Structure formats: structure tokens, C-alpha cells
Amino acid sequence: MKKLSIFLLLIMSVFVLGACQSDEKIAVSGESSDGVQEMKIKFSHVVAENTPKHQGALAMKEYIEKESDGKIKVEIYPNSSLFGDQDEYQNLVANNIQFIAPDLTKFVGNNPQFNVPALPFAFADDNEAIAFWDGEKGKEVLSSLKDDGVIGLSMWPNGGKHLTNGKHAISSPADLKGLKFRTQGGQVLESMYSALGAGSESIPFGELYTALDQGVVDGQENTFSNIESKKFDEVQKYMTVMNHTRVDYAVFTNTKFWDSMNAATKAIVEGGLAAGTEVARAEAKSLNEKALEKIKERGNVEIVELTPEQVEEFKKVLEPIYEEYKSQIGADVIEAARNAGK
Ligand code: LMR
To answer: How far is the CA of 156 from the centre of ligand 1 (A)?
Structure first.
């Protein structure tokens, strides 16, 4: 009997030891046997699903979850459903979320060089904007939030912005006089409206529809994709195709989170970022073109297409902004932006 008890005890210890060892691998290091860390990543943003930013985020999620065999879960929160313009950055700094991809002009308070997408008529298309942000100066600007523990990883374009308003058709600089426009951020956008005799106010994206509806501002500037997906044309009467400034994003992450990943895990997340960047860059133009068609079909806004001469009039009025911001943004950065991809 005694012999049997000792034998049973021995068998049990072997099982318990074995169980402890395999548990230890997962619980202590948080890694599976292939070295990939199990974790949940949150990506928060403010726009709708049928936009280049959300499509990029989805591609990133799909790649990461597939390549990690589900060990890494990516949760995407669109439409300011988790955090909006007011609080997403602070929550990234606090590592409550691991990725955001804000319109870069929302960071002008942190570094005036983030005014680049607001420089009037600096970029003709997505490719020129991509060339700037992938270039030396662009990379320097994206890395300028490191003191906050934030890394700028990769630029994702949305596209050129166009003016909408509820008062009257706009086809010349004089038509903006006395109107008030919502901006994404201050500084260059504010100076631009003031040069055109208009007022401006920076309002979070999630509050924009109501602000337009209630007449807090008369108009706003945005990409076709944002105008269509957020139905701003329901509360506006006119749209001028301008392409004068841009909505461009970068994917930002938290340094502590980024550095906490081992090589196997980081390789998967970096692969996901590359997949997301590819989709966002490839989809932006066609999503904007489709959105313009939808806006036309809905027929809520009268659309003004500017002639090349009318565009020249706007360029002339807005040109002094380059001199005004030369010292804040840096002559080298402005030059790199104006020459990018040309
Ligand atoms: C806006 O605030 O108008 C846009 O920048 C929102 C976005 O992220 O595209």
C-alpha cells in the first residue's frame, strides 16, 4: 500500500512539473513556442469605415492576426468611437491605445512643421505628398514627437481638400469674405482663411456635422471621401473643387509599446504596417473618386470646378503664407515640400 502511494505521488509530481513548465513558457514570458508575444493592440481613429485610413487599418489587422496565428489581436475603433481628436493623442502617450493615424495638421501645436499638408497648393497629388513624407525632411518631422514617447512610423495619404459651405458658391478669393470655416488645426490654415477675409475655428472631426448643421461655422475643407462618408453635403449647399491643401496622416505608436516587442513579434507588426501602408496608399485616390461620384449622385451640393485662371487667383492671394511661415516651418522643409516628387 505504502509502495503504491509513493508510486502515485511520483506520477502526480511528473504531471504537475510538466504542466508547470509549459505554463511557465506562456505566463512568464508571454510568448508562445514560436516566440510571438500574445497581446491585444488597439488602433483608434476618427473617420468612417469606407475611407483610406480605415481600409489601411483593416489590412494591418488582417495581416497581423493571420501571421501571428491569432496570438496578436488588433481592435480597430473608427468614427471617434473610443477617442476623438481631443483625447486620442494623450491616450497614445499613456499607452492606452497603440496606434493612431491623425491628420498631421492636428499636431501643429506640437511642432509647426506639421503645417506642411496645409501649405497652399504645395502638392498636386498623393504621390508628391508621399515623396515628401518618405524623404529625409518628412522623416525628420515624423520623428519629432519622440520626447512624448511617440514614434511616427509611416505616412498614409487621404487626398486634396475641397471647400464646402452653406452660404453661396465660391469661385474667387473674394467669395470667402465674411464667411467662417472650420479647420483641423490652427496656424497656416488660420492664416489662409484670414488672407481670404474669412474667419476660422478649429473643431474636432466628430463634432463637425453638428457644427455645420447648427451654423457654428459656415463651411469646412475636406477630402471627397470624408465629405461623403460623414454626409457633410447634407448640411452644406456648395462645394468648390480646390485641391489647395491636403489631409495626410501618419501612423503613430507608443515608444514603450514598440520597444516591448521581441524580434519575432515586431517583425509581424512591421509586416502589418507595411500591408496597411500599401492598401492606404493604393486606395486613397480611387476612394476619393468614388466619393465624388456619390456626392454628385446625391445632388445635395452645387459643385463649382475652378478654371486654371481662377486657381491662379487663389494661389496669388495665398503665396505670402510661404514667407510668413518660413522661419517657423524652416526654409529647407518648405523647399523639400514644394519640390517633392516633381
Ligand atoms: C478632419 O478632421 O477633417 C480630418 O482630418 C479627419 C481625418 O482623420 O481624416
So the answer is: 12
